[in-house]
Amino acid sequence: MKKANKKKKTHVPFRMNMLFFVVFLLFSALIFRLGIVQIVQGEDYQRKIERTEDVTVNTSVPRGRIYDRDGEIVVDNVPQNAITYTRSSSPNAEEMMQTAEKLARLIEKETDQVTERDMKDFWIGKNEAKAKAKVTDKEWTAYENEELTEDDLYDLQLERITESDLNELTDAELEVLAIYREFTSGYPQTPQIVKNENVTDVEYAVVSENLSSLPGVNTTTDWERAYSHDGTLKTVLGNISSSKEGLPKEMAEYYLARDYSRNDRVGKSYLEYQYEDVLRGQKTKMKNITDKSGNVLDSEIITEGQRGKDLVLTVDMDLQTAVEKIIEEELQQAKSGYHPFLDRAFVTMMDPNTGEILAMAGKKYEVVDGKAEIFDFALGNMTTSYAMGSAVKGATVLTGYMTGVNEPGEQIVDEPLNFAGTRSKSSWFNRGGAFSISDTYALMRSSNVYMFKTAMEIGGARYIRNGSLKINEQAFPTMRNYFSQFGLGVKTGIDLPGEQAGYKGYVDQPGKILDFAIGQFDTYTPLQLAQYVSTIANGGYRMQPRIVKEIREPVSETNKIGPIAEEIEPTVLNTLDLEPGWIEQVQEGFRLVAQASQGTASSYFGDAPYKMAAKTGTAEGVYDGPLKEKNKNEMTWNVTLVGYAPYDNPEVAMAVVVPWAYEDSSSSIPINHNIGRRAMDKYFELKEKKVTEKPAEAVVDQEIITKQETTNLKDE
């Protein structure tokens, strides 16, 4: 027994020694590993802890300028001092608030954009104890029992904040809130404008000096659109989004897929929208160096940006502003009488050989807060449509030729037309007689009966006194098809979005083709009317109207136009299928309107030195303007005028449209004629002025180019 006990005692120390030895080995391995980590790989791990990341971002550049056809700046960019904030990818609300408080001590920030909800959120953050007290013990118990969520409690606090509570916020705190609001509205790693209006040089300098203590804040130069002619053509030029608005929500995905940032300003309407790809420019690429938390440590430019390319318009701004003034004056004079429905007028002037819009003016008369004001409504030339009356009779005559029912020079009896069950239909100058007239006479005197009988022939009908009128139902689509070849009833193709095609009247009786033939059924836009008369003026070529003449490369020099990047060539949309002499016959009729003693416009244009060709129009119908709800079934008259000059070598075509000009013939006013004569006079006056100001060689070169362009089009 003693020997056994002795052996057992010597065995226990051996196992303990083995255990200590194993522990020693493990401890030694751990020390060895720690040595490697700290000594050998320590610097690598330290770099990982302090690592930075390079994040590439794009910053916007100024948009391209817009010039008129003579190189005068219409839309420019005005530089502005700006203060921005770039939010980190992992924002810390407390740090952002501290930065906002520091910045508020350096700049003045308007608080008009701060909402009540912003103030309530801010109040809760500043008054945690008071905010907690807004929740009852019963509600806290419900929260602890998971019957209410944190969001539910927060909503309760918001509801119970009183006006008195919000009045506790000082002006200084509201200013901090306004700045913080800008900080949080931006996107990570994208500069957000904090202030870009009325940033003083002192504010700019002080903030620049303190950037090291204002993480994410930077000073830069921003820009804003400036218009050299306040209000002129503004509706056609369009708008851009603001720096606060950024990408329009409905098109955000479209722009983001094209390398835009969410706070980029883009064209929202018309010219700015249509030519967005040209005007936007090449963005500056910047590299933001950030720490592991996403805080911006430094920024550097990788690629310098370039402002957008410039647009040169076809519009002559001297002519545009002059025509707008003419419309305003004539509207004001007409409104001095009793013309309650008259509230707008339009003028489109274009080069009939190229389709270039020389002026597109529109004005709208409104009473705002008891005061009469006139607003720009140039856009109405392509977005509103009206019955144009006899101005479209040139299309009716040519449709008669092209369908084979009439021949140039053919005589037709003008007489009152009496159909069974309807009142007599006649020409304004012949209420009871019957005599033969030619096509040119019909245009000169504006015969309705010539147009009625032409439409009847197209519809397979012949006039029988007191008989019924039986018109083939295909008369409407036939005449509408031919009218569309002049641009009436179809979109003109102008390089602007939002163009309207007009309204096709509802055909419940085939006999309404007679009204269609004299322009009192379907409606057309003033721009369509200008395209129509240009087609007659240039010999049968429907030209695509355009408002942009050239795209130019940007240059840094102010008021200088860069080299041409793209010249937009004239486009012929279609050519009328005419026999020799047909178009000349209608052109002669238009000449007689303005030049012959019996012409309906001769008293206004007969003495014009530029030798006008024209066609007047009136259209009677039920008033359908903005006051129609209070004036149902009121009858009004639209007055129109189309023309071109000189009649033997047209260089300018014009359409004048004045809807709802008067209520009955006794109160008629020649506002369309007055506007048309003054607008044409101004065109040739400005032309003469510019010719005398240019060197003789430049004038000759321009004349050669214009003639060559016209020759090329006719050769096609």
TrEMBL record:
Residues 346-673 form the Penicillin-binding protein transpeptidase domain. One of its GO terms (cellular component) is plasma membrane. It comes from the Bacteria. It is an enzyme of class 3 (hydrolase). Coiled coil: none annotated. Keywords: Cell membrane, Cell shape, Cell wall biogenesis/degradation, Membrane, Peptidoglycan synthesis, Transmembrane, Transmembrane helix. Residues 60-298 form the Penicillin-binding protein dimerisation domain. It is a single-pass membrane protein. Pathway: Cell wall biogenesis; peptidoglycan biosynthesis. It is found in: Cell membrane; Membrane. PANTHER family: PEPTIDOGLYCAN D,D-TRANSPEPTIDASE, PEPTIDOGLYCAN D,D-TRANSPEPTIDASE MRDA. This is serine-type D-Ala-D-Ala carboxypeptidase. It comes from Domibacillus iocasae.
